[in-house]
Specification:
By secondary structure, the chain is mostly helical. 47% of the residues lie in helices and 7% in strands.
Length: 474
Amino acid sequence: MTITYADRIPNNVDLGGDKLLQRALEHWQPEFLKWWTDMGPEDSHTADVYLRTAVSVHPSGWAHFDYVKMPDYRWGIFLAPGDGERKVNFGDHKGEPVWQDVPGEHRANLRRIIVTQGDTEPASVEQQRHLGLTCPSQYDLRNLFQVNVEEGRHLWAMVYLLHRYFGRDGREEAEALLQRRSGDRDNPRILGAFNERTPDWLAFFMFTYFTDRDGKFQLLALAESGFDPLARTTRFMLMEEAHHMYVGEAGVGRVIQRTCEVMLEHKTDDPDRLRALGVIDLPTVQRYLNFHFSVTIDLFGADVSSNAATFYSSGLKGRYGETKYGDDHILRDAMYPVLQVIDGRLAAGEAPALNALNEKLRDDYIKDTVAGVGRWNRIIHKLGIPCELTVPHKAFNRKIGPLAGLRLSPDGRIVSEAEWSARQRDWLATDEDRAFVASLMGRVATPGAYANWISPPTLAINKQPADFEFVRFN
């Protein structure tokens, strides 16, 4: 299969001038399109969707909006503009020029980092592939498809690095990215959160708020990398990732807005009454929040990790905002607070800062997450509802690390196994919760119309009117 590189794959990496890379991509692209047909958004391949496409790296005009059939979307490869004077800012190579090629001693670890990041991109598309059949509006359907095609572009970005810098090993890893499947018992995705189901739109909004926010912080840490092509790739990905998090935050906010409006109109906060009125009660929103937050913070890895220390000392993965810190950026003698379990109790402790870098990034993520939940609470408070959503304790419902299996209430209180069993239904979304939310999911495809359980958006896409036809069904 011959590819016209300048037109078919927008790029700023001279794809047309690299014959080895051309041959690799000419083999991989048909497999990618087959994966998209099999595992991409269901029942969507013939629709014309109003999407943005990355066409350059210039901040004032990096994206172009137009109707496109998703199998014909131009998945481009872009690196943020380079800095010829850039130096490694941390670790044992601090002060050295950044690397334009893979240092042999760091090859395996860099490949592992890129593959793990790359695996999340197709995974989320697979998790969300059925949602278009139950969209609450054309506006939301278009946003879902935008997230999906950009996750596909992020996969291309990681595959470019594998093909360009890792030879045969990289080609094999790129093929494996298309072979794993989210939730597959025999060949699952690498990270646990990307094997969870996303069965409804409240779960999708929570995923794009919480789990894509993990993606933001991972990309920010990789944007500090001494391997310059990886740093530049992730910096450009962050421009698209911001919209994904907006979709999640605004989506949950619109669910909350609609619920609160119905609470005021009918003067009730009774969950059963609100469910009968066709909206999602706030306790259910809280239980979804608790689940998605706790699943996502496990993505940061073990609280104390030798791998995190190795990645940092090697100059492969830094801290979020590395240059803002006033320390030595080597961290050999620094300590960082971590939680410990002593005699079945949570206790404050310390670990070497190098080994606690996962925990540092997790704490940065939590601060950012709490701020967004605060914006949801402002919606509730503005309407005079005496209720508040909360972010659970970071040790709640953990599945990895030393806190795994610890029975803890969302407010951080150690509980017995008996109390956990009795109260778990109050704290985490139940099968009944999910069945109720699923019962509200019905496709609303008329331009300008919205499902009863969600409010219309307050911001337009590319300044288009509220009744704009974002998806043309053919």
